[in-house]
Amino acid sequence: MELFTNQVLAGIATGAIYACMALAVVMIYQAIDHLNFAQGEMAMFSTFISWQLMQWGVSYWAAFVITLAFSFVAGIAIERILFKPLAKAPVLTNVAGFIALFAIINSSAGLIWDFTIKQYPTPFGSAPFLGSQLISTHQAGMIGVTVLLLLGLYFFFQYTRIGLAMRAAASVPESARLVGINTSWMIALGWGMATAIGSIAGMLIAPVVFLEPNMMGGVLIYGFAAAVLGGLSSPFGAVVGGFLVGVFENLAGTYIPGVGNELKLPIALALIISVLVVKPAGLFGRQIVKRV
Amino acid sequence: MSAAEEVVAEGHQAVEAVPKRAMTLGTGTSLVVLAALLIVPMFVKNFIIFQMTMLLIYGLAVLALNILTGGSGQFSLGQSAFYAVGAYTSAVLMEHGNINYALTIPISATVCFGFGYLFGKPALRLSGVYLALATFALATAMPQLLKLNFLEHWTGGVQGLVVTKPDAPFGLPMSQDTWLYYFTLIVTVAIYLLSVNLLRSRSGRAFMAIRDNEIAASSMGVNVALYKTLAFGVSAAVTGVAGSLGAIAVQFVAPDSYTITLAISLFLGMVVGGVGWLPGSFVGAAFIIFVPNMAESISKGLSGAVFGVLLFLVIYLVPHGARQIAILGQQFAGKLKKN
């Protein structure tokens, strides 16, 4: 029983990473209706920016805020320059664009900062949390930040005018335009916010997985899986999905014989797919009703 | 440009909505390309022949994805898994069962058809990004499954298997590479013709009806579940054949040659060639084989970025892929005839 509790706790700790990433994925999905494959790379690049700032002697929190602002602007810029011209192109062409963006960012980061692994500081310290060996203060802090972020987003979307406008632009673009919402800029804003959230995720994840250009590869896959499991239309679902995936993965690694590190991912994915077969819109997602 | 865009938008909806005169132009072009494919290998070096073989093989794999996505509207990031199953079926049969390489191809097509058909069953409940995730899971699981200990006797584990390259039969005076090229060409042309006819048949129309509107299709009497799984089966079978040919051409199979990267390249090939336009598959295959090499030669450190920029250029210029160029060409030819 103790092993079980420990594994669940450890799962929640890694789950926080996935939850962060899943939240960013859902944000952009809400705004543009596609999964952005380059999301992880964008987060990685932002994290490198903050690292570089700290190398130049900027304090952690100052670097944090500057990176956040940079990511927000960069996200908007990427949408305006690269993806706005593709707005009328087929969906699959857009997906190819994301893959191209992935390649560009990954390769440039490799050239600027090379592929060696770098230490990344944590603002929360890494002592054991409340005397537990399994969960460190950093991981507890990560969970805290994720929950705060989620609350913030909830209030933003539910109780602010601009949040309402973004929701309208995403769900019924034509009607939103008719009531005077600039839908095109709402999409750009969505990109900016998603990139900023991604950068927070990156800066929280970096102390755990270490900083290098490929650090987001694995995390993004779990983030996608978590977002899909929770339901792509629900930020709350994304966070729950993130924690569930973390716990799933840990329990599968512990209790199913013959599952090493290598098979953890396929098993977690297989479980998620079985959930999806029963609930095709994810656990908390709304089923989209299509008109014939 | 606007007129062209309208045509593209129309053409995007229906594969066979191409005017009659244009078809003859299309046939003419295909014959010229086929003649070039037959003659060129007689005059070039073995390495180029090998690359042309790979072009045909990847072309087949992209074609298979095109049948699935362009035909029936189901998205897949799991094509590398079917490719791997095809490659391993051939390799294991040839090396452990001493079966002739040519015979392994129909066998791996059958095996992959079954695999794809069965995978299509649970995938029926999923669509869009959810299906993308499911197929993606398949692609990430496949290399790990091939490395499993209890399969190691057959698959060779992480090391993989070495495949012997076949000699030309009947004492034909050509090198192994040249023979393999012609063999691949025969298989490719056969599968290409079959696929074109499949999409023009009753089943092909059923695929497209499902792609355009599932509910409308089912109310017209199309058995949606059957045709969706069939599309997966056919696509997997063609990918499996490509995998078999690939294993024979490269003379080696290993789990890590069939990762998600392969599936993503095949996807890019489909987009660059034009979704739903079968001849484009080979243009797309050329893109995914040659452009990464080109990017590498432009800048070693930034090869990924150069590739990304080139890809962006292509999708800006022709968002509908090579098919858009073909349609423009047809219109131009039509104008010339009128004058």
UniProtKB/TrEMBL annotation, chain A:
Membrane topology recorded in Swiss-Prot or TrEMBL: Multi-pass membrane protein
Coiled-coil portions: none
Keyword GTP-binding assigned: no
GO process annotations (BP): amino acid transport
Chief location of this protein within or outside the cell: membrane
Record bears the keyword Chloroplast: no
Keywords: Amino-acid transport, Cell membrane, Membrane, Transmembrane, Transmembrane helix, Transport
Any Gene Ontology CC annotation: plasma membrane
Single GO term (MF): transmembrane transporter activity
Transmembrane segments: 12-32, 60-83, 95-115, 135-157, 185-209, 265-285
InterPro entries xref list: ABC_transp_permease (IPR001851), BCAA_transport_permease (IPR052157)
UniProt-annotated location(s): Cell membrane
Pfam families reported for this sequence: BPD_transp_2
Family indicated by similarity: Belongs to the binding-protein-dependent transport system permease family. LivHM subfamily.
UniProt protein name: ABC transporter permease
Protein species of origin: Bradyrhizobium nitroreducens
